[in-house]
Design a protein that fits this description.
Elements lengths: L5 H15 L3 H21 L3 H10 L1
Length: about 60
């Protein structure tokens, strides 16, 4: 995972817990998940610009 070993991942997790606290981390994870899900959905949809270009080529 990005060239990080388990000790580094553990240190990062502990640092995040200390900085953000146990209540804020699930909220941040949920927001990140929603953002990534929306981004993935947008990538999966054909864009309107691409449709316009295809119609002009015909």
């Amino acid at each position: 995972m990005f060239g990080l070993g388990w000790p580094e991942v553990g240190i990062i997790a502990i640092a995040a817990l200390v900085i953000f606290g146990p209540k804020k981390i699930p909220e941040m994870g949920s927001a990140l998940g929603k953002t990534l899900r929306g981004f993935k959905e947008e990538l999966g949809k054909p864009s309107e610009d691409a449709n316009d270009e295809n119609q002009h080529d015909k």
